[in-house]
Design a protein that fits this description.
Elements: H1 21-34, H2 39-58, E1 64-66, E2 72-74
Length: 78
């Protein structure tokens, strides 16, 4: 069990995750493309982005992607 910090929460929690090979390959590709230091960083950034996007959508907002030619596409994840 991790030792608690000053807020009585563990400083770190270790997880063992099992992914399909395609997901692992995708995570490595994202790590390379984003210059992330580790797969942990990829997961941490991914969760932060997913949290931001889902909170925005749940609050009634929308996410619009714009490509290099100005074409817009609404992101649908929920």
């Amino acid at each position: 069990m991790p030792k608690p910090n000053k807020n009585n929460l563990p400083e770190r929690v270790r997880l063992n995750l099992e992914f399909a090979p395609q997901i692992y390959d995708q995570m490595q590709a994202v790590q390379h493309r984003s210059h992330a230091a580790s797969l942990t960083e990829v997961l941490r950034r991914s969760l932060a982005l997913y949290d931001l996007v889902t909170e925005h959508i749940v609050d009634g907002g929308e996410i619009v992607l714009v490509d290099g030619k100005g074409k817009q596409e609404k992101l649908r994840i929920l």
